[in-house]
Amino acid sequence: MFYKRQLWTYNFGIQDCMSNQGYMFMWDETTAKRGSVEVANCLYNFLTEFITGARSLVSYSDGSSGQNRNKTIVALYTELHRTGVYEVLNHKYLVRGHTFLQNDTDFSQIEKRKKSAVVYLPEDWCKVVREANTVKPFVVRKMRLPDFKDWRSFLESRHAMLAKNRDGKRVQILDAHWLNFGWGEEKDPISGQTQMVHHPDEVWVRYGFSTDEPWKKVNIQCHRQQTDANQTPGRLYPARLKVVPAKLEDLQQIAAFVPEPQRQFYLTMEAAEPEPKAK
To answer: Which parts of the sequence belong to the DUF7869 domain (predicted)?
Structure first.
């Protein structure tokens, strides 16, 4: 059974550095995938559900382009400012191999707890994760099908990020290490004094972490006719996701060793349509 394909359960972790509280957003592969839209959903849910009253946000993450460093996240942060969730947002992408996130410790605790865990269903992983930190247990938020919204389509209908800055030079988000939204600090070219500048229609970009580096200012076009504050994104997936046939066959063979009623979770899964063979 070791070589059988198993069902993936995903865990997106957020660490509140002010309270030292870890938050885990969990779902399995029949609920959603694990791309930038899923990450955007977790971020939005965290920032709007676990409200601290702060008006300024500084967030850090790795630089994964598929999940964290992309136009979907840029548009989401723009939306968070324009809708009044935060006045100032700064996001920094850490340098791989040279930096440390508290999440690394969180996930090492989970890996340690996994070794003695008995798991039959994805929701059992929620219990494992919740118990992994014995000093300050993680807050676990199980993401369900209706929780995932189509943020990509929604944001693309409201905001469009241009590829060039004010000077007409191309700006590569994949090379960025610092993104600033809402209000940003800038030195006055005449007096040399630092001042706060409101830029709701721009994302300011730096390729490093130095405050001496001039901001690269990229326009975020706002589709005015699509910015009704009452609009909300639709569901990302209309129904439970299907599993590729080969994996489903493995899962249903493994299900023979799973007790009832947990076994039914695997027996009721549906197979996805096989991909057409290349000619």
So the answer is: 20-151
